[in-house]
Each structure stands twice: as structure tokens, then as C-alpha cells.
Design brief:
Helix content: 40-55%
Structural class: alpha+beta
Strand order of the largest sheet: 2-1-5-4-3
Distance between the termini: 90 Å
Shape: elongated
Largest sheet: 5 strands, antiparallel
Length: 454
């Protein structure tokens, strides 16, 4: 039993278009044909002659119409096949454009240009995809891509190693099933201290929103911070041990030397009660012991910085108290609005500014050899974008060229403790601010800027 072949919708539409073209070309020539036949049959020629003349006209009319229809159909079919190939991703086909400047030739050239553009775009896209794939394969950062339903759609090798699974076992699973629920629900960026199936340690997590096919997706990046933190911790311990060892040795070396000399004299029995060496040695031991005690206290003070108790603090009253605490130089206070209040811990902020003003006074006096009338220190408040800036300036020699200004116990002043700047910066950072030391631009001296969020 034979089966009747069903035409596809595309074939039906093409057949209908052919009929429209044939009818349009046929009816466009019909008026001229009717006019020609009317004039022919209106003549006095005999019927045989009229039929003989009419027959070639009819054949010519029909043949011309069919030729025009076939030519137009071939051009449209060629362009249709090229557009279908472009839609399927095949950009190799091209149509031959005739040299004539007509609408069909222009259309053919534009379709060819479209193919060239799409081919170039696909080449660029392919190269970009290959680069992205290579980066995803090589980086040591776990990359997870979740769809709008929080189901995993992509994971790079580092992410799979982190979960200790293969891709076919995790793709399509939810973030909660993979143990990444806190990464989807928590802040956009944070540090995680936890264990994954493939590794444990401290991790830096960042979550980003992007859209694909009009739907929101989530990209989660997880980087191992353990090695970096260990290296920073080791460097910090090395610096601390170096400073502690230097200070302790400076105190213990003379104590050990003098104690050994006194022991030798005591063993020989040549140590009278009123011996001057005995008194001097004991004084040195006492002095160095006190210095060592002060050093340990200073270190403990840095390590026990309290959490700021922030309250509204009047700036003018704060500046007045600070100026009254150091009278070696008349500290100039630049007037500001007395109603301005800082949201800060007044005790901690005052201590930070005392340290900065004291350093400024010391620098100004040292630069002018103790002549207080030449030394100048100013204290003022400036309003910046989203912040308040407290600025302390002096006319000293400027800040020393050293990267160790904020290293604990580093000092360039004789008898200095080396914790004033460090302590002040810790106070600024505990308030969410910063402390910067730089040279003045308009004059000689140092400018200390303590910025606090408004």
C-alpha cells in the first residue's frame, strides 16, 4: 500500500510563493497581450493570418513569463539556502553577485557580507572561548556557576578538586547538597575557615551575579588563602622576633656583663660594701631592667587595644584639650564649625592625636634647635567626600625616608619607644579610618592626616 508524502510547511509556503510570482508576472503582461490581440483582430486580415500571428505572440508571452519566474525563483532559492546555512552555523556558502547594479545584486552582496561578518564573529568567539577555557583549566581558584535555581552548571578542575569529585557527579546538584549553601546565602565576599572534601584551611570567597538567557545566575570563586596567610604570619613573626631580640639583647648584654664582673669580685673577696663599681653596676642593672619592663609594657599595650566605644565627640573641645597637654610650642588650632561632631571613641581618638601632636612638636623643635618661637605646629579639621580629616602639620624637616615608620618599636628619635605612630594608626583603623604621613607641599615639614568616616 503506497503512502502519500506529506509536504512540510516550508515546502507549502514555497509553493504558494511560486504561485504568487507566476500570477504576478502573468497578470502584469495580460493588458499588453489583450491590447495586441484586439488590434490584431480588428484588422481586415483573414482568420488564418490572424491566428498565425497570434500564436507566436502567445508563446513568446508565456515563455518570457516562465523564464522570469524561473530566474527569480533560482535567485531567491539561492539566497534562502545561504540564509539557512548561516542559521545552521555554516558560513562557507556564498552567492554569485552579478555585476549589474540592481536590487537583486545588492541583496546578494549584502547576504555575502553578512556571512563574512558572522564568520569573523564566530572566529573571535571561538578564540575567546578557548582562552577562557584555558584560564579556567589552569587557575588554582575554584569556579562554580549556578543557575537561577541554585543548581551547578559549571565547575572548573580546581573546583572539582576542592569537592574531590568528578564533573558528572556534581553538575545539576544544588548548592546545599554540595556544601556551598553558606556561599549562596552569606555576604558577597568573605573569608571562610572550613574543611572541604578535597582540602581544608582558610578560603577567600566572592560571589557575583550575572545573566544568561535572561535569567540570573551566580558565579562563586573560592581561593585558598592558607599559604598566603602563613607567609604573612611567618614574616610578621620574624619581624617581631627580630625587634624583641634586639631590644632584649640591648638590655641583657650589659646586665650579664656587669653581673659577671660583680660575681668575680665577690668570689675574690675584693668587693667592699661601699665600692663605687658596685653602686654603678647595680644602677645600670636597675636602669636596664626598668627599660626592659617599659618595652614589654609597650608591647602589651599594642596587643590589648580596646574596641572603640563610639559616641558623638565635639571637635573643638577635643582640640583644646590636646593643645593644653603640650605647652612646649603654641599649637595653632584652625577654627572650624563648633557644632561639628565626630562619631568616635573620645579617649582613643585623643590618645592618637596626642601622639601625633607630640611627634610634630618634637620634629619642629629638633629642626630649630629647641627655639620654640620658631617652631610651629597646627591642628585643623577638613571635610572630605564621606570623611572627616584631622590634619597635624609642623615646620620640621619632614618625615624620614623609611618604610618602617609604622613598624612597631622603630624610631628615629633618641629615647623614643617606637609605638606612637603604630598605636595611632591602630586607633584610626579600629574606627574604619586611615593614618597617612607625608611631606608638606607648600612648605617644609610633615603632614599627618587621620581620616575618619563621616
Amino acid at each position: 500500500m503506497s503512502q502519500t508524502r506529506q509536504n512540510s510547511p516550508a515546502e507549502k509556503q514555497l509553493a504558494q510563493t511560486d504561485r504568487y510570482l507566476a500570477q504576478a508576472i502573468f497578470y502584469s503582461g495580460l493588458p499588453a497581450f489583450v491590447l495586441a490581440m484586439s488590434l490584431l483582430w480588428a484588422t481586415s486580415w483573414d482568420t488564418k493570418t490572424k491566428i498565425t500571428i497570434s500564436l507566436p505572440v502567445v508563446i513568446f508571452w508565456i515563455g518570457f513569463a516562465l523564464a522570469a519566474i524561473n530566474r527569480l525563483k533560482r535567485s531567491l532559492l539561492t539566497l534562502s539556502n545561504i540564509l539557512a546555512s548561516l542559521r545552521e552555523g555554516d558560513y562557507s556558502l556564498r552567492a554569485r553577485a552579478r555585476g549589474r547594479d540592481d536590487a537583486m545584486s545588492d541583496l546578494t552582496r549584502e547576504v555575502n557580507r553578512l556571512g563574512d561578518t558572522l564568520r569573523q564573529q564566530r572566529r573571535n568567539e571561538t578564540e575567546a572561548t578557548q582562552l577562557l577555557t584555558t584560564v579556567m583549566q589552569e587557575i588554582e581558584v575554584g569556579v562554580f556557576a549556578f543557575d537561577s535555581e541554585q543548581r551547578l552548571r559549571l565547575a572548573n578542575p580546581a573546583a572539582l578538586r576542592l569537592l574531590d569529585v568528578t564533573a558528572d557527579r556534581v553538575l545539576g546538584r544544588s548548592a546545599g547538597d554540595l556544601g556551598l549553601g553558606e556561599c549562596m546565602a552569606g555576604p558577597d565576599a568573605c573569608v571562610l575557615a572550613r574543611s572541604f572534601p578535597g582540602a581544608e584551611g582558610r578560603w577567600g570567597m566572592r560571589r557575583t551575579l550575572f545573566h544568561s538567557e535572561g535569567k540570573p545566575h551566580f558565579l562563586i570563586l573560592i581561593a585558598d588563602l592558607s599559604r598566603t596567610l602563613r607567609e604573612e604570619e611567618l614574616a610578621a613573626w620574624q619581624r617581631l622576633v627580630r625587634v624583641l631580640g634586639h631590644e632584649i639583647n640591648n638590655s641583657l648584654t650589659p646586665i650579664k656583663s656587669i653581673a659577671g664582673s660583680l660575681r668575680t669580685q665577690a668570689a675574690r673577696g675584693t668587693l667592699p660594701a661601699d665600692n663605687e663599681d658596685l653602686r654603678a653596676g647595680l644602677e645600670i642593672i636597675e636602669t636596664r631592667a626598668q627599660g626592659l619592663s617599659r618595652f614589654i609594657d609597650a608591647y602589651a599595650r599594642l596587643a590589648r587595644l580596646p574596641t572603640p566605644n563610639k559616641v558623638p565627640t565635639r571637635v573643638t573641645a577635643l582640640f583644646s584639650r590636646i593643645r593644653s597637654l603640650d605647652t612646649r610650642v603654641g599649637v595653632e588650632i584652625v577654627p572650624s564649625d563648633p557644632a561639628i561632631e565626630l562619631f568616635a571613641d573620645p579617649a582613643l581618638l585623643e590618645q592618637a592625636l596626642i601622639n601625633l601632636v607630640k611627634n610634630a612638636v618634637d620634629a619642629a623643635l629638633a629642626a630649630h634647635e629647641g627655639q620654640s618661637e620658631l617652631a610651629a605646629v597646627s591642628l585643623r579639621l577638613e571635610l572630605g567626600p564621606g570623611s572627616y580629616r584631622i590634619i597635624v602639620e609642623d615646620n620640621g624637616l619632614g618625615p624620614p625616608e623609611s618604610v618602617n615608620l609604622f613598624v612597631p618599636f622603630f624610631t628615629t628619635k633618641p629615647g623614643g619607644s617606637g609605638i606612637g605612630l603604630v598605636f595611632s594608626r591602630q586607633i584610626a583603623e579600629s574606627h574604619g579610618g586611615t593614618l597617612v604621613l607625608e611631606s608638606r607641599t607648600a612648605a617644609r615639614g610633615c603632614k599627618a592626616t587621620l581620616s575618619l568616616p563621616a
